[in-house]
Amino acid sequence: MKHRATQRPLTPPGAERCRVPTAAGSLGVLRAGVPDPGSHPVVLVHGGGTDGSSISWYRLVGPLASDREVWAVDLPGFGASMDVVPVGGPGPMADVLAEAMTTLGIGPAAVCGVSMGGDVALNLALTHPERVAGLVLIAPGGLAPALGSAGRHRAAWLAAQLPDRSCCRRDASRTGSPELHCAIS
User: Fold this and answer.
1) Rounded distance, CA 76 to CA 100, Å?
2) How far apart (Å, rounded) are the C-alpha atoms in residues 177 and 53?
3) pTM over 0.90
4) Sign of torsion over alpha carbons 125, 131, 132, 138
5) How is domain 16-142 classified at the architecture level of CATH?
6) pLDDT at residue 93 greater than cutoff 60
7) Which long-range CB contacts under 8 A does 132-138 form with residues at least 24 apart?
8) What is the pLDDT of residue 149?
9) pLDDT for the residue numbered 51
């Protein structure tokens, strides 16, 4: 007789799972924290490929939810929404995300996106600005064609490094290995 392990979905500590109906289908959602009228909620948008909210944001949901509400919607075709037919590129995905935010009652939020999710978050800010209080884009996808060439993309990346390089210095004097010390407090 073979023993079959019960498979439970990966859920970050402190989060609960729910579903939200949209025109695209019923989407999986992670929710954590409690609403705080003095702070904006956070909406986390996962990357592409085999990614989903639980994978992208597993270690951040709990810490982010310590003082605010945190939401992470699995976009159509990803994570807990794998059974929903994908809707296309970042524009249509941003529209689905905006619909989900409306249905869930999420007001303007700090929207954080990684990779493909960064492109979706940027499109959400451009097409549904009333939904976005701020953006955090982590290695956002989809920007190279907008910049026109690989050279311009590289130049933009280098320019983004300037604040770090101008505010930080390497110091090996204390530990024998280079450490980064930042002047920003």
Assistant:
1) 11
2) 36
3) no
4) negative
5) 3-Layer(aba) Sandwich (3.40)
6) yes
7) 132/108, 133/40, 133/108, 133/109, 134/40, 134/110, 135/110, 135/111, 136/110, 136/111, 136/112, 137/112, 137/113, 138/112, 138/113, 138/114
8) 66
9) 86
